[in-house]
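Example (one chain per record):
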Amino acid sequence: MNTALVSPAGRLDKWLWSVRVFRSRSLASDACRAGSVAVNEQPAKPARDVRPGETITVRLGIVTRTLRVVDVPRSRVGAKLVARFCDDLTPPEELAKAKEQPLQQMLAREKGSGRPTKRDRRLLDRFLS
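Predicted structure:
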């Protein structure tokens, strides 16, 4: 079989880590298992093969990034080389959400953690003033 004709494929979690969407491969795997990652609008598992031309949607906090796979790197690439491996199709409105609400992201409490304590409240007041 001629390997030059076969399109490269790689694991989804490894690709997300390689193109610097996530800081670690385990974070990428966790996001896939949590349902925050979709490939061609279908929920995807971490071990799913990724091929050039596919569209990947990743929910990162309040922002949903949309990326098109251009190529699959052999290992993690530098920030300047990311453009060789993916096209960022994220609409400007999504990126504006992150710029408008950075404070909400920082102040968001983990679900189920209850009300802030008096100490938490004092720290919050000190941070905001």
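Caption: The domain at 1-90 is CATH 3.10.290.10 (Structural Genomics Hypothetical 15.5 Kd Protein In mrcA-pckA Intergenic Region; Chain A).
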